[in-house]
Amino acid sequence: DTPELREALLRRTEDPHADTRGEAILGLARRHDPRALALVLRELSSGASGPLYLEAAAELADLSLLPALRALRERWNGPDWMREELEKALARCEGKRAQEGR
Is the distance from CB of 40 to CB of 25 less than 8 angstroms? Predict the structure, then answer.
C-alpha cells in the first residue's frame, strides 16, 4: 500500500470497463481510502449492483451506504449468490449502526 498504488487505483475508478472500475474501487475500500466511499455511493446510486461494489460496501461498512443498499434490495432482480453479497453489505453497515448506538 503506497500513495502511488492508491493513485493508480483512483485513476482506474473512471474506467469505462465495469470490472476494472469495480476492482479499483474495491482496492481503495480495502485500503480504507476515504475516497472509496463516494465512489461506492456513486455506483450503487446509479443502479450498479456488481459483486465488486457490494464487496466494497461491505468492506467500508459505512452508515451512509444504507439508503442505497436498501433501495437496491427493494428492486433486486439479480442472482441469489449476489443477493447474499448485498445482504452481507447491509449487515455490515447495520452492524456499524448498532456499534454507534443508533
Answer: yes
- How many angstroms separate the Cα of 29 from the Cα of each of 62, 69, 79, 84, 102? 11, 16, 24, 19, 24
Nearest residue to 14 (alpha-carbon basis) of 25, 30, 28, 4: 25
pTM comes to 0.90
* C-alpha 63, offset from chain centre: 12
Amino acid letter, 40: V
Cα(30)–Cα(60) distance, rounded to whole angstroms?
Answer: 8
pLDDT at 102 over 60: no
Cell numbers found for residue 38: 463516494
Contact 37, 16 (CB under 8 A): no
SS3 at position 71: helix
